[in-house]
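Write out this protein's structure.
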Amino acid sequence: MPINQQQLLQILPNAGPQAGVFVPALNIAMARYTIDTRLRIAAFIAQIGHESGQLRYVRELGSDSYLAKYDTGQLALRLGNTPEADGDGQLYRGRGLIQVTGRANYEACGEALGLDLLRQPQLLEQPEHAAMSAAWFWDRANLNLLADKGDLLMIPRRINGGTNSLADRQALPAGIGGAAVKVLDMRFLILAFVLGSGLGTWAAWQWQGAHYGLQLSTQTLAWQQEREQAALAVVDWQNAEQARRRALELRLQDNDTTIHKELSDAQTSQARLRDRLATADLRLSVLLASPTAGDGMPTASGSGGVVHGGPRGELDPAAAGRIVAITDYGDQGLIALKACQAYVREIAH
């Protein structure tokens, strides 16, 4: 007796689009564990509606400090978690539509469903496994028998050890009370009509819709995982690029410091030279040519001859200072050229 999306939304009106995601998975899970009568389906849907916040949560909420109650002490032992504070409480928190909790339950559920839940507990957050684990737990606790008897008070006791959540289930628009059964009674009217017009076609469409719905939900999860992986790859690339740029900036900063020191040392040396020139009133002399021709140009030396030291002229201090300034500009130009060459080498790597 499968349930459709409209019926599920009548029972769990706050499920929204999640109803369409879970309908195929719920029908497959309920069929496997014979949750196939109006009373069984009504009780089961009401129970998972409470445990999952009307299909919105398949992972138990709570901080690490809150989940630490599952990590040590008597509750941890009852759930099969290790007695040490090693994170079992956080790792094996409640998951699935009925909140399977604890290492022992994860191990038993994994064996029943053919999943390695001890290594991959997050599998129970996927729609098909979330629904199947809830139906498995329902069957293991023999809750179909209680639903058949109408023993609605005992069902929450079997699951949570008390009745504190019963009011929440009854508060659902189609909770444990008769409203859920009335919603499912509409199914019998539809079936009666369909039997008169051909059950085979209807059944085929129901199966195909469930199959494609489950396939679509699986593809959606795979696409979301691919998006997350792509986003992580972009973040890794950005971090690597920032690290490379930072390293380049540090190298350039070191080069700037070195070049600045060289420039400062050269300027200091030049300043000392100027001080010596000013203090000693040094006169620079230049070698003048031998006797000049009428046009004032030096005469050429004879064949094989040498120009011997001719008369020397003296430059005044202003001319000497100008010559020193010109050499300053040359030194600064060489230092700047060296800095440019170092920068080009760095960015070329």
